[in-house]
Structure formats: structure tokens, C-alpha cells
Fold:
Amino acid sequence: MKQLMIIFLLLSMGSPLSVYSEGTDTVASIDALRERVQALEKEAAELEDQNHGLRMMLREMEDDEIYIVVDTENHRLTLRRGDKVLRTVVVGTGSRQMVEEETGRNWYFETPIGSFTVLAKERNPVWIRPDWSYVEENMPVPPKDDPDRIVRGVLGKYALVLGGGYKIHGTLYKDLLGTSFTHGCISMDDDDLEAVYKAAKIGTKVYIY
Amino acid sequence: MLIRIAIGLCAASILFFMINPAYADQAGEDMQALLLREKELGAKVERLRLEQEFLLFKKGFYTLDSKYLILDPVSKTGQLRYKNRLLKEFRFTTPSPREAKALPRGVLILSKKLGSDHNRLTLIFSGSLILKSMESGRQAVRKSDTPRLYLKKSDMLSLFYALEVGGRAYVLHHDF
Structure:
């Protein structure tokens, strides 16, 4: 009887001890998991703060100004504000042809690529014929101040000056719009020119690619 | 005396066995809840990291004098951008849904421009993504398994001349 009781006693003590051991393991793993969750919560909160800061910074760098984009390969000018297209215009761009003078002077008629700014706005612009326009027509090149160089009515009613002799202006050759036919300037129809002229201001950015 | 002790211990152990399942159940529920929370937070952290990667990419380009692309494989649209300006939007197609899923994500570098004629313009990004015009590549024999996107010829023409080797593209993850 005594022996039986001792065995029962040992058995009944063993089980609680093993359960106690399992219990402490569970508590330890829950604690470890809780720590991992807390670390992730902290990391997520930090990332959220950082991303919020970055978004604010990017928003401050945005603006609501109108800008002009010229795609020379597809002969399109787009008037944009933010990510919105306000107007798309068919334009003429540089012919990528070369004219060479007997003396060796030459000119390559390409629309310049890059970032530009509208430097001036002109109404009823006049064209001061450059030397190449005489060379192109096999005419003698007159002196720089020759009044014969001043030509009115060929650039349309308006022009946006980009610098370096390049402008956005009208044209007499409307049938050629949508092709590469100019001497580097960007030309367009009268209605489109008026709209672009009115929308742009001095300082408006022009991106040509 | 010994019998009393034995009876006491038996009673204690029976009581312990009765309480323990409840304790074990509670611990199990806590563990499950924590594991679920850990999983959710892990996914959230990953999303936030990807969002940060994209925001840092944009921030970097707002100050650089270089054009870049943003490609969205879900809407199948792309943007050509310069600093904070959108220059051009375009659409693209993928040969198959499988290929759309295989598109690389994140930052890619334009490593090569191939363009002997206007119908066969090709932009290769980091050897892991190819942009071609629709007119060029579909019928051609595929020489590699590199995922490719097809654009309209006019769009491809614009991108080809707007981007320079070394230029960047960002393929959106769409997890944020």
C-alpha cells in the first residue's frame, strides 16, 4: 500500500512540474514575440513620420505654374499646369538641314534641346534676317544694320523669346506644321500662338526634348 | 499522515490540471493575436520602405538636371518627367500577363540605346527591362527572356531621344 502511494505521489507531482515548465516556455516566447511586435510598431511609426516629411518636402517643391513642353520628334507643343494638359499644339521644328557659305561658314538648323525660360514676349514681332537666310537664297549678305534685314509680318502676331535667337512664333507656312521645316524656332498656327502667348508669361519654363 | 499529504497533493494536482487548460487556451490566443499583428506590421513596414524608396527617388530627381521615367505596370502607363515637371504621358503593353508580373520593380538604369532606324528603337534598362516600339519587336525572334514593354512608335521616338544612357526609370511596386 505504501509503495503504491509513493508511486502515485511521484506521478501526481511530475505532471504539474512538466506543465509549469511548458508554461514558462510559453510566457518566454510570448514575451519575445511582444518585443518583436513593439519593435515593428516603432519602425512603422518612424517610417510613417519620415515618409510624411518627404511628401511634404516634395509638395513644397511642386508649383502650380503653367509650363510649356515641346516634343521635337513628334512636333507637338503642350501647355501644361501641374500634371494637366491645357492645350496641345502641332508645331514646326528645326529642319536638321545644313547651309554652308562659300567661305566655309555653316549653319545647322536644329531646335535646341533643354530647359529654357521665356525671356520676353513680343507683339507683332519683326524678323531681322540673319546671314544664313541670304546664304540660303544665294544672295549677297548685306551689312548688319542694313534696313533690308528688317522683315515684318512673317512671324505672326506674337512671339515668345527663348534666347540664343530662338523663339516660339507664327508662320506663313501653315501646311508644313507637324514637320521639321524651321531654322530652329518653334512655329505654330495663329490661334494656337495666341493661346500660348496669353497663357505664358516672362519666366515661364519651356522644356524642349 | 502520509495518506493526508497524498490526498492533498492529489487534490492540488487535479486543481492544477483543471486550471491549466484555460491558461493554455489564453496563452495560445495571445500568441495567435501577436503572430497576426507581427505579420501585419511586417507587411506595413515593407510597404512603407517601398514608398520611401520611391519618394527618395523623386526627391533626388527634383534637383537633378536629368529626365527620368516612371512606369506603372498596373495601369500600363508611363511618364517622362524632368525635375518636378511631367513632360509626357504614354501607354504601353506587355506581351503576356505572366510577363507583366515578371517586370522588375524599383530603380532601373538605362544601359543601352539601340536605334539603327526609327522602327526598331530599343531602350535596355539594367539588362532587366526592354522598351521597344510596337512596330518593331513582336514578330522578331526573342533572343532573351528579359521582360519587355511595347510603346507606340511616336512615344518610343520621344523617349529614345529624350533619355540618355545612365538615365533612370522607376517601376512602381504598387504595394503602397
Notes: Chain B has a mean pLDDT of 85. The CA atoms of residues 106 and 142 of chain B lie 24 Å apart. The beta strands of chain B are 67-72, 77-82, 85-93, 106-114, 122-125, 129-133, 148-151, 168-171. The longest strand of chain B covers residues 85-93.
